[in-house]
Amino acid sequence: LGEKFNETAWGKMIQQEPMQSLTSQLFDEAEVAVTPIAEEIGLSIRDLLAIPQGEICLAFVAPPSGGQVTAPVLMLDVRGQQANVQKLLDLLEQRLVDEGRQATTENLGGATLKIFEDEDPRWTGVIHFRKDDLQVLTTNLEVAEQILSLWNGEEDVRSLEANQDFQQVMRYSKGPAESSPQIRWFIDPIS
Asked: pLDDT of 100-135, one tens digit each?
């Protein structure tokens, strides 16, 4: 991902002077600040930054049953980085268990979901699974189930591809020479 990032407009910009010296200084300071955490998890900042191998998606998804609370969903392409991802997940899981969360496992749609729940209604839970080199984390089991159902083609749902507003925004979100933007975002609260 780092090599691919260097080919993007942002990557090219931060490689130029004086940005390169500023970026280098910020990275060095971040490395010092993160050192205690890195030692605890056994991964350097460079190891952590190497985990994403492609696209990263952060979405806020309404559960299929409705309700007022949307669930955050994080999806990362972790191809070839499963060992480092597992170190992070082991640490997360241990912390959740130490806090009294109950862990269960559920096999669904070709993936093994690790579910952490609590009796406290203010705490929504943590669910994570890996499928096809993508690591998925969310806070809602219904949303995780829907993601897997869509992934496996078991559910017919209106996608962003069918959303005319989204398509209009994407038509105007082209960079030079029709290149794709590095960051895309879209909000459609009334869909």
From this structure: 888 899 998 889 999 998 777 666 789 999 998 999
The angle formed by the CA atoms of residues 25, 30 and 33, to the nearest 5 degrees, is: 130
Q: 152 and 131 in contact (C-beta within 8 Å)?
A: no
Mean pLDDT of 21-36: 80
Give the chain's length. Answer: 191
Prior bond of 176 cis (ω within 30°)? no
Question: Cβ atoms within 10 A of the Cβ of 114, count?
Answer: 19
Which three-class secondary structure state does DSSP give residue 39? helix
Report the mean per-residue pLDDT for the chain: 81
Strands 56-61 and 71-77: antiparallel
Sheet holding 102-108, edge to edge: 56-61, 71-77, 134-138, 126-131, 111-117, 102-108
Residue 107's SS3 state is strand
Burial of residue 43 (number of CB atoms within 10 Å: 0-12, 13-18, 19+) = buried
> Per residue in 59-91, pLDDT tens?
888 888 877 678 899 999 998 889 989 988 998
- Dihedral sign, CA of 48, 71, 101, 141? negative
